Amino acid sequence: xxxxxxxxxTDRSRTLTCYNGACPLVGIPSCNDxxxxxxxxxxAILQQSLSDKQPIHFMSTEVSDDIEGYSFYILYVExxxxxxxxxxxxxxxxxxxxxxxNTTKFGFENIRAFPLQGYHIEKKVYICVRTWNYFDRxxxxxxxxxxxxxxxxxxxxxxxxxxxxxxxxxxPISEEDYNxxxxxxxxxxxxxxxxxxxxxxxxxxxxxxxxNAKYDEDKVFIICMTVYWKDDPKSLKQICLVDVKxxxxxxxxxxxxxxxxxxxxxxxxx
Length: 270
Known about the structure:
By secondary structure, the protein is of the alpha+beta class. It is built from seven helices and ten strands.
């Protein structure tokens, strides 16, 4: 869950620590530390709600059907403009019969939906292919992809993805809850931290070439990192790794390293 972060970057105290390569890296907040500091209390709310067995607001990202204890694994196939859904079903049935060996292992359903990618003003026609287990779905997906039929769900990784949701225990959130700025923002964005970095180098070879790691004369002297929430341009933390003693700057966590080796080690450890 993501919530907008409001803070004044100029109010942050400047921080300066040293790293010698022999001890653990300290002075830089962990991922959990940053989340706890900038989630506007959402972590505490979630933990308290779990402790009190209160409703948890969430947005599901994957839903599968479970009817009378039987799970369906769904594959969505887009119906191209030069085919009707009935003609594509005939083609799919032929492919899946060869692949799955039995017509009882799959079923079809016509649906209309907006594509996940791009902007569309009208719903498109899809054929929903249902299989009885993950491996049949995988083989079906692989088979239709091999004949260049476009699919809306294209996960070919081996593995299972399970999130169980009981219909009996599911209650849609109220309009009042959804309009709550805290929950509405949390429901519409993923809580993902983004780390960006910039590595600055120099060369004493004076050739005008771009520094290259294979030359001892080419060095990394500073690495700057910035942490953001996904889709939010405001930085949460700014971290600077340097190999020379320097004065800390406001809003930055500065780690002074003894050498290029220690600087790169600190970057790898973070």
